């Protein structure tokens, strides 16, 4: 029997990008992805790989959990 999980990853990429005064294209160029990847990630329609998530956190010089949070069944679990 397959178990269904109602979980996801939330992100604050938009907030960090705007605070850094970067366009989607500028951030994309800095981390090696397309502008479309940034766009869909900010809309919550794309969950990045762990490598990309670390690359984004490293670019902004913050811990990965400051940008990405795991949500399990409507409750946020940041640890």
Automatic annotation (TrEMBL):
Q: Which UniProt keywords apply?
A: DNA-binding
Q: Is rRNA processing included in the keywords of this UniProt record?
A: no
Check the record and name the CDD domains matching this protein.
HTH_XRE (cd00093)
Which InterPro entries does the entry link to? Cro/C1-type_HTH, Lambda_DNA-bd_dom_sf
Name of the protein = Putative transcriptional regulator
Q: Which PANTHER family match?
A: DNA-BIDING PHAGE PROTEIN (PTHR46558:SF4), TRACRIPTIONAL REGULATORY PROTEIN-RELATED-RELATED (PTHR46558)
- What Gene3D superfamilies has UniProt attached to this entry? lambda repressor-like DNA-binding domains
The record's section on SMART domains has: HTH_XRE (SM00530)
Pfam families documented for this protein: HTH_3
Looking at the record's lineage, which domain of life comes first? Bacteria
